[in-house]
Amino acid sequence: MKKFKEWADENLQGDRVIWAVVFALSVISVLVVYSSIGTLAYKRTASPEWILMKHTGMVMLGLASMWIAHKIDYRYYSKLSRLALWMSIPLLLYTFRFGTTLNDAARWIKVPFFGSFQPSDFASLALIINLASMLSKRQQNIDDIKESLIPILFWCGSICGPHCPF
Q1: Which of 33, 56, 71 is the last residue of a domain?
Q2: Which domain range does residue 62 map to?
């Protein structure tokens, strides 16, 4: 237990409550999947243990990805966010025009050999990161509408505009 605490102190910097909540929710998700897979496994003639191990592996992969993302400097994400926004606009327009319908929603793009993804998830993540970056850079001039509000409204309108029903 002492070695785990030393490892956690060294590698899990940041808010300990957030890390504890993430680990608790991960464990709870494994328990919930285990309690609900009996019927699903019977219908699919699959082993419940296989489904549980697959979910546990995905949880571990998610936790590892989160830890790696945590180790990368936040300024790197700030630089990538502008590029991600510029990439997301054509993806959203392509989805609007040629999107594939899955689960009664025409918001998907099929990618050969990988499956499908929703560009709106990518765009919303890029928008949140970019808005945080813009606000942190302009926090001294936040009262200036031309300097702060107009660029924010531009990006919000560009990303959210293709989703408007009219």
Answers
A1: 71
A2: 2-71
Judge if 90 and 130 occupy the same domain.
yes
pTM, two decimal places: 0.67
60 and 138 belong to one structural domain = no
Instruction: Give me the amino acid identity at 120.
Output: S
Specify the number of domains making up the chain.
Answer: 2
Cα 131 to Cα 119: distance, rounded to the nearest angstrom: 18
Q: Tens digit of pLDDT for each residue in 76-126?
A: 888 888 899 889 888 888 888 887 777 776 778 888 888 888 888 888 888
Q: How many whole angstroms separate alpha carbon 46 and alpha carbon 112?
A: 27
